[in-house]
Amino acid sequence: MMIVDLVDEIDFKERLIALGAPVTLEQDLMDVQEAVLAWIKEYPEQTPFVKDLCAAMQSDDITVLPEVSNVMASFA
């Protein structure tokens, strides 16, 4: 039996919320993307934390859903 670590939309939002990003679980991914981009524009010191989070979620042993991966790519 193979167990895969999967990052879905909810996991992604929860991790961003834990960073202090101004997002909610109810937002769709496009709204999350806009909110995080505005947040890091206003608070550029948060950028490394967002990038580190995205890098950690994209490691070789974690599967990220494509729609989540697309949003993460916009933070690069």
Automatic annotation (TrEMBL):
Top-rank taxon, per record: Bacteria
Protein name per Swiss-Prot or TrEMBL: Uncharacterized protein
